[in-house]
Amino acid sequence: EQEGLGLAPAPRKKGKFGGSVWCAKENCWNHCCRYDDQLGRFVANPSMKEDSDVRSLLDSHADLLSGLAKCVFRVQIENTVLTGFFVSEKCGVTCSHFFDPKKHSHLEVMNKLPKLKTWTTTSALGDKTALSLGQKPRVTHLDFKLDTAVLEFTNANPHHISSLGGVGSVHAGDTVFTIAYNCLPEEEDVTAMYEDLTPEAQAVLPFLPSVGDHEEVLIPNCKVISFGSVSEVCANGTAFATFSVWHGASGAPVFKLLPDSAVLIGRIDGGDKHAFHNQFTLLREDFIRQCKIEKVV
Questions:
Q1: What is the predicted pLDDT for the residue at 134?
Q2: Could you report the per-residue pLDDT of 19-51, keeping only the tens digit for each?
Q3: Given strand 80-86, what is the order of strands in its sheet?
């Protein structure tokens, strides 16, 4: 069996992840909340303030958020960890930057990925649902320019995201959230994360955060949810929000929260080193349809 391709993750041209986001207004970190397999819902981070708005959102939208959580899965390809989501019962989508197109052709990657021992997908770590996704899905399409990989699964998942809100439905100030799997920042990541901030951004931090602080906020290697608000919508098809995410969240869906529902609007792809927010790409209205026919345009 193929031991490995030696896939070098592609160099990213976009901004760095913002990681844990500090909320100056509430004078606290914007904590992620983990999905509890036994309860079948997201639970409040014990480090959050008792009067946090997130606590009430988790309660008032519990069933909605639980359903969306079942659409999200984790991907590990050699040393690269990503997040993906189902767009139909057997079709999932994630990012494609687990390989460098200058070193490996699309055909080579698509042919050899199913043979990798370190090519795994799980819907949640440590629960029974993970068994149904413990398979190596077939890669049906790769598009490095759009940073997209379309996966075909053998076992069907009845939970999937079937529609998009559209680019025009996103505005600054909207409440948004993402469901993802974060990795744990290392010491050098934390130092660089702080040093890359502008002096204005550094000034609002009451202390230099440690790896432990970020671990408490990001809850690595678990399915988590993070809420925030849209801080900017850019003309190039990207936007920024104040939710907390880190490496591993690439490919995670971003939703706009409505009074009684939520709509998919984008996908995580990076962050911005100059302020407390993370970047995501707005998805076109026909994105899901194109994924289903194995062609992303």
A1: 58
A2: 888 887 777 888 999 999 889 899 999 988 877
A3: 119-122, 72-77, 80-86, 91-94, 148-152, 138-143
Q: Taking residues 274-291, report their average pLDDT.
A: 80
Q: What is the pTM of this model?
A: 0.87
Contact 54, 27 (CB under 8 A): no
DSSP string computed for the chain: ------PPPPPP-SPPP-BSPEETTTTEE---EEEETTTTEE---TTS-TT-HHHHHHHHTHHHHHHHHTTEEEEEETTEEEEEEESSSSEEEE--TTS-TTTS-HHHHHHHGGG-TTEEEESSTTSTHHHHT-S--EEEEEETTTTEEEEE-SS--S-----B--GGG--TT-EEEEEEEPPPPPHHHHHHHHHTS-HHHHHT-SS---HHHHHHHH-TTSEEEEEEEEEEE-TTSEEEE---B-TT-TT-EEEEE-SS-EEEEEEEEEE-TTSS-EEEEEPPTTHHHHHHTT---
Rounded Cα gap, residues 40 and 206, in angstroms = 36
What's the one-letter identity of residue 55? R
- The mean pLDDT value for 239-268 works out to 92
Contact yes or no for 96/278 (Cβ under 8 A): no
| Contact criterion met (CB below 8 Å) for 62 and 260 | no
- CA atoms of 202 and 188, how far apart (whole Å): 17
Confidence of residue 135 (pLDDT cuts 50, 70, 90): low
